[in-house]
Each structure stands twice: as structure tokens, then as C-alpha cells.
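cron nightly-structures :: item 1 of 1
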Amino acid sequence: MASAHKFTVFIAGASGETGKSIVKHLLLQPQNFDVVALARPESASNKFYTALSEQGVKVVPVNVRDVDALVAIISGGSDAPASSAIVISCMTLTELPGELALVEASIRARVGRHVPSFFATVCPPRGVLDVRTAKEDVLDVIKRAYLPFTAIDIGWWAQWCLPRLPSGKLDDAIAFPVREIVGKGDVPCAITDVTDVGAYVVRIISDPRTLNRLVMAYGDVRTQTEVWDMFERLSGEKIPRPTISTQEVIDSIAKNRELFAKDPTNYQPLVDKGMAEYKYTQAVRGDNTPEHAKYLGYLDATELYPDVKIKTIEDYAREVLSGKSLGVIYEGKDDHPLKFMSKPDYA
């Protein structure tokens, strides 16, 4: 679908899982988007960015904490408002200084739209999920400056939904198999294959209806029990169903918060706390649903763009079982925060 005019999209974090999907779908519409990847100087010439450059992406090395340098890149050195510029952050919150610098640069360059690094599950702004609180703090900075924005959440990744098969035949295909069912496993949760995220993002960022709004995009809504049942049916294997109680989830959050407070240099309890909080918000409270998103003020991308069709969790599971799709994420990113997460022993 053609836009009224062409946008230049500046994306930070293009080498991440979300960023890759967004860039892929932007490149499918060269008539609508020019794409600029903001890359760390030490990474700008690596294989990934070299490949992007060959596909037509302009790769610009820059320190994402250098506001002046970012402004110069986004504005092109002009004093006029960069009204055709869209800035998208796909950085993790371990790069919070860079996230805030990018916001400041967008403010100074007077961009047409800034898309902060949300791209996760829906939940209330504060008091449930510490990561969400940090993201809301960034959004507060955006709103105080009246910077045009769109914040996009995509539910829980399909890559985090499938349990391990007892045969072990998919151990190399699923990087983060689900360990247990929370409670009765009867809480619905919105799910998206991360490789599909860009299909919605390219529509959302060029749509005036989504300006200064929250938008939820997703491919499916399922409970954990439904996912287990489906994967058993497709795989032909009987999958164990260990459970974890609500209290155990709450205790895990408290324990890991205390451990991290004692040693802030140890990322493992910080990451484990975050994952336990995600279990709490989506599998205990049930925040991550289209209904709750609407209550919280989100627009629903499936209603805005009914012609966009992306994978359901069953579609994704079939691809994993057939070898067409791998649930391997963060490959080659040994410094990613989730690499510090505790791993289960399946022996």
C-alpha cells in the first residue's frame, strides 16, 4: 500500500530480532521508505550491516549516546523540521542512556514520529513490570516535549511459547523452551512471531490514525494449556506439564530482586526477576490481551489493518517442526541480557 509521501526511517537496534523484522518489511516498500540504520561504530562494518548496505539500507556509524551527532544525521544538517523522518528504537533497556539520547535528538530535529522501544507485552503503565515502568519513564520524556510518537506492543513472542519435546529432537531449534505452566494454564495471552512484527510496523508508522497513540499488534491469543495441547497434537509426543504456582512466581520476583540488590554486577538475578515478572503479568494477572489493551487506550492493529495476515502460534509451531523456522533468537549475541537467564536442567 503506497503512502501519501515517502518517509526516511532511522532505526537503532537494526541487528536485533525486532529490528531485523522491521527492516525486512521496510525494504519491501522502497517506494514508501528510505531506511537508515544507526549502527555502533564498532559494528557498522560487520557482516550483518554489510549485508544490509547491499540491500539498500544506508548504514551510518554513530554513538547512540551522542545527541549532537544523532541530530546531525536525522536532520541532514538542516534547521528545518525533519517532518518526513521516523525514528524507531529497537534497543534493549540496557542501553537506556542511548534510548533517552535518541528521544532528545528526535525532539531537537523535530521529527515527524518517534517510535520508542516498547515491542513487548501489554500491561498497566506502572506497578506490575519493572521493564514497563522504565519504558513509561521514556514515554513521559516524549510527552513532556510533545514529540509526535507511536508506541507499539506486540504481545509475547511465539519464540518463547513452545515447551521442550521429551525426545529432545527440537533442542537445537528452540533456544528458550518453556519450562512450566503457570497455575492452571488457563489465562489467555496475545502472541506474535517476532519475524512478523515488521508487517504491522510498516503500516502503523505511516498511518496518521496511530500518531500519539499506543498500538497493539498480535498474531494469536492462546492459553498455555492450549499451546501445550496443540504442540502435543502436532508433534505426536506426550509433553510433561510441570506447574508453578502464583505464589512461587511472586516469591521468585522477590528473591531475585533481593539478590540483584546485593550484587548489581550480577545480571542473572536481574534477568530472572524480569522473566518472573513477565510470567506474573501475562500468566497470572492476564494483562496481555486485546481486551485489556483497549481498556489501557491501545488501538488494535488487527482491526486497523484486517488485510495483514501473520502467523498464528500453530502456524509457527508447524514451521518449527518442519525445520522451516527455528526458534533460535539472539544468535551470535553473547552480550544480550537474556543470555544471563538461568537455564533448566533437562537431564
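cron nightly-structures :: done
The radius of gyration is 20 Å.
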